[in-house]
Amino acid sequence: MNSTVTPNNNLPSLHIPKRFTLVLIICLVALVIVVLASLIFGARSVRFHELIDGLFYSHIDSYEANVVRKRISRTVFSLLCGAALGVSGALMQAVTRNPIADPSILGVNTGAALFVVCGIAFLNISTASQYIWLALAGAAITAVFVFGIGSMGRGGATPIKLVLAGAATSAALASLVTAIMIPRSYVMDQFRFWQVGSVGSATWSGITTFIPFLIIGILVAFMTAPALNALALGDEVATGLGVRSGVLRLIAALAGVLLCGATTALAGPIGFIGLLATHVIRLLLGPDLRFVIPMSALSGAVILTISDVIGRLIGSPGELEVGVVTAFVGAPILIILAMKAKVRSL
């Protein structure tokens, strides 16, 4: 029976880095802190005893307790979206062997956005499940297109060609989104808040719709991690270790698109989380994807949730959308990474 990786002893055995336990503890502590901050801070901050009332005493019907309960779904949603984007970034960097690959940089987010706005404008869609399927289709088609364009010419799909293809595709698709929205004011009203990326409209029904896609994507990421480590050594070496490179790339890319597309459908095109989360973990633990993938999920959840809290505090008494905060922080970091890495392959 064929499989992506044949069961042999040539693949690297699991060696836990000495710093893994320390980094795991730090991430878990940070996760607890950002969850508490997300529940406490906002346009109306609450005290600790009011937080306890809202979480554990359902009979208390005070304004503060209801504020806490309302923030629970938002906090859970931001954690799940951050985890999905962190894992998606790790997969896309591994598949393309590009250290600055990210759903937003490769144009996948914009492709998902285009299909969603087309659905709003021409199909009158309005539910989370409809958003998800359209966003997944747009993300998948865009990913295939960008990889196809980046693979043309001499040298195949090099990191710099993929980034340039992604940037050009993203710009073209963004123009199409604008062209569709401008003559249709009702589409613009419905789309404009979603477009900047936000977790503020989180609902339990949306979270329930999102969770199956998250589970499938992360499971596939875990299953392909050992083979992706072999792929980082080069296609010829990976083939010698029993890895079917083409099949592996397809499966891992589909998992990344699934995670990114589902997140984009419900939260909008939030950028740079996959880039930031993965690079922080790789800096601390090294390139082994068996550790990078799960820890990128944790760090992505922390980064997105704290960005949401920062947006609420900066924009008080309103709020600054989380997509704006992540772009403001992520853009200069991307420039620094590009300068240091010189866009070399992983």
From TrEMBL:
Membrane topology type: Multi-pass membrane protein
InterPro entries: ABC_BtuC-like (IPR037294), ABC_transptr_permease_BtuC (IPR000522)
The keyword Membrane appears for this protein: yes
Top-level taxonomic group: Bacteria
Cellular localisation: Cell membrane
Gene3D superfamilies assigned: ABC transporter involved in vitamin B12 uptake, BtuC (1.10.3470.10)
Database matches in Pfam families: FecCD (PF01032)
Keywords annotated in UniProt: Cell membrane, Membrane, Transmembrane, Transmembrane helix, Transport
Predominant localisation class: membrane
Transmembrane domains' residue ranges: 20-41, 76-94, 106-125, 132-150, 162-182, 203-228, 248-277, 289-310, 322-339
Family: Belongs to the binding-protein-dependent transport system permease family. FecCD subfamily.
Descriptive protein name: FecCD family ABC transporter permease
UniProt source species: Paenibacillus septentrionalis
Lineage: Bacteria, Bacillati, Bacillota, Bacilli, Bacillales
